[in-house]
Amino acid sequence: MWPEAQPVATLSGQTADSISMAELNSPQPHYLPGFAKHWPAVRAACQGQVAISDYLLRHYSGEPLTAYTSDVQSGGRVFYNADFSGYNFQPVSATLEQLLSISGDAAHWYVGSTFVPRWFPQWLPEQSVPALEQNTDNPLVSLWLGNQSRVAAHADLPQNLAVVVAGRRRFTLFPPEQLPNLYIGPLDASPAGRPISLVDFAKPDLAQFPKFAEAMAHAQVVELEPGDALIIPSMWWHHVEALSPLNVLMNFWWRDSPAYVPSPQLALTLAMLSLNALPAEQKAAWRAHFDHYVFDQDQAGHIPEHLRGLQGPLTETSARQVRAELLNKLNR
Asked: What is the domain count for the chain?
């Protein structure tokens, strides 16, 4: 896409049946060619659009889906409207049969994260990743469907395994530290549910977004065919383009922390609420506290073990106790 971008590192020889949790939890993204080429859905996709459409319909529960549609002028970009008063698409409730009949020449359509056990209840027995089933606590498994679309760069909390079932997808990834150079939009209002980059990757305006040039220097790009997969580590920024007349992506999300631990997003929200109004010198003091108590891995070695509390190992019981104390204080 850009001459500065590097290819995502390839991890060859791994399939959905053989990959290990250590590989899936890699802190770096990895491209997995042919990862799911043996899945029945992928084999159907390789036979053509009619075959994969029939496969989808056979597994579909019949419950209407929420889709996002936009005119051809949008170029499939899922984004805000011109004055940021709303979005450039319309949500519609439709059956899969209705959506599959929409031509990309007439409109763009996009179905976001769709819970597989609810809308495609017989899908998972035929398309699975044993390591995730055996080693994680109910990973969230979703399908993403549509014709040509562009989803702006965003970062997700969970670990992510994205598997292309049908069509082609291009992923552009950036490490978490590129956040300041991606011009991320509002936290509270986003067309994708997560804050997104305001840069149009198809034609980046470097006069308006000059630091994006630095982000591009750290970009990694990969294009996936049916059966290929991509490991996207937690909080890596990723821009996704669906390039074919019909695209199907299956993804698995999981967290490598206990289920009783709250989302770090809550900590960020509460920190912003608590600290943003402070004067600069007090913010600097609290930055030192966060560095010491949150990010320093060896900040409690001098404290007797039985007195470490939150500075020691966290258990489900202690986590629930702290949450209850926080709720009581926040509700005063």
From this structure: 2
